[in-house]
Amino acid sequence: MRTTRLLLLALLxxxxxxxxxxxxxxxxxxxxxxxxxxxxxxxxxxxxxxxxQISLAATVELRWRNADDDQRASIIPxxxxxxxxxxxxxxxxxxxxxxxxxxxxxxxxxxxxxxxxVTESVHLVDVLNQTDAVADIDGEDKLGQPMxxxxxxxxxxxxxxxxxxxxxxxxxxxxxxxxxxxxxxDTDRPQYESSAKEKHVDLALRYSHYVGDVDIGLSLxxxxxxxxxxxxxxxxxxxxxxxxxxxxxxxxxQYTRDAWLWKLESIVRDxxxxxxxxxxxxxxxxxxxxxxxxxxxxxxxxYQYDGRGEFEPLTIADNDVFAGARLALNDTQDTAxxxxxxxxxxxxxxxxNVEAERRLGEDYVLELRARAxxxxxxxxxxxTLSRDDYLQLQxxxxx
Amino acid sequence: MKFKTVTSIGLLVAFALMxxxxxxxxxxxxKGFDIAARSDRTDIGFGESEVELQMILRNAAGQESRxxxxxxxxxxxxxxxxxxxxxxFDTPRDIEGTALLSHAKILDPDDQWLYLPAxxxxxxxxxxxKSGPFVGSEFAFEDFTAIELNKFDYQYIGTDACGELQxxxxxxxxxxxxxxxxxxxxxxDQVHFQIRKVEFYDRRGDLLKVLDLKDYRQYDNxxxxxxxxxxxxxxxxxxxxxxxxxxxxEAKLGEDDFVKGxxxxxx
Lengths: 399, 267
Description:
Chain A has one helix and 21 strands. By secondary structure, chain A is mainly beta.
């Protein structure tokens, strides 16, 4: 298993450098228990046993810093076990790196997770890390990406260079898992445009800075697309993921004024078949201390456009409006609720999402999620998920 | 983070004292400003600091919850520019690694970035939420950042005993937008010129909170710091204590430690 190799490498790195006298170590962990209840019977053959879905996940975070404070290392293994769908069980290294800092630059070697961008409903610009798509359909969960990263901080901004020698495949639900296509995706037979396959060396460059109220990011990526096309195999029993070579230029902007955050992300991608533009933009406006309480209410509105052709990887955010509200009670338990609706202007498909969370005591966090799809006809992209409405409860214990 | 203070009285302070005593500028406004300025200037030249603190939140029923955080500060000696600060949370564990970077301004809104470790995301946030609670505590954002001299107009009220010391009492009227307060009343001692107590009055003009600053210690560089700050909300009977460890003034921090690109590399 390739993760084992990464794990070994990661375990060795701090050992090599851990000879300092007063190095600092920090160990943390959390365990999550998650239950999903589906409100409808599954649509596709093979999913019959799945009226509910139970999974357990554990994360360990080990961090190290040397006495001189110019080197640091991190190992964050993540293990997930799903009771029904073995394709959802996973061992990953979210982080496993060593980094050395000098003056105004930092060199980082190993696996890491990096986020680029500003918007809430779609993350167009954020392309370095593969999505752990089977973890959650919101695409916010990521797999650790092996890289060499050189960061340079100057008066005029932050420059990051990335060399990524190894590709991580996207996760997909297995035959007995929910949230899948009619034909399951066979992740054991990935296809690549590059003859180097997963060993193609990807490159990326990012500049980020701010001027007054405006934060700006510019990014370039050249390498294996994290989004695969899904094509039927020869005997028509499965879909195979095809990972193309792409070049992508991205820009992200945020203008922050009073209680308004105005956001824009846009990309130009030279994809499999054509070169296209995609963009997402909108605002987040916060009403502070509503009704003389300590609670804040944030209002979100974003428009999503994607001009990709029909042969590119499928997206549902092509001509959609996302509207949402975020309630933060600002209490000692950090109680927060986010509710949102995505609406496809062309097809009238709707996606409803509610997320709520609250800390219990000092060490536990309870999360509730409810998600529903509606309005999809048979030829619409969310049709395959249209019986996967669900309610999810998650309890996490932090150590 | 500017409930700070110091030791040495410069020429300027002596001059200000002289003025107030001779009555040349002896209006209540001028006297209030002079006392505030003398207090603020005891803090000049600390350069940079690092401190760990424990925040204890107590509700009206006496139930406690705790947070541990670290605060780094970079002084901007120019009184027309605010300091830069970085707050990093160690507990509760679920928000460990969350960080808030602030570039304080005097009358303009501060520049603030929040780091969310679960998503590894740096987010520029609005700083117009000055009066909102800071991480569920009785401290508002403005209580942490607003004690820059020129953020207020002043009014001298009189003198009052404060513990074993004698204090000058002054009103502070916020000049910046979005303050949750109509006024604050501050007690400044007449020996070390440190702030000992502050009363906060809400938008209706009613007393909202009382801050006690205790356990002042003087460091080798002459700077004074309180090591216990208790904020009591008299309307809700909730209370937040901040218990500070020893300050480190030798941290060799620079501008590069207070940039947004730093936020994802703090741990």
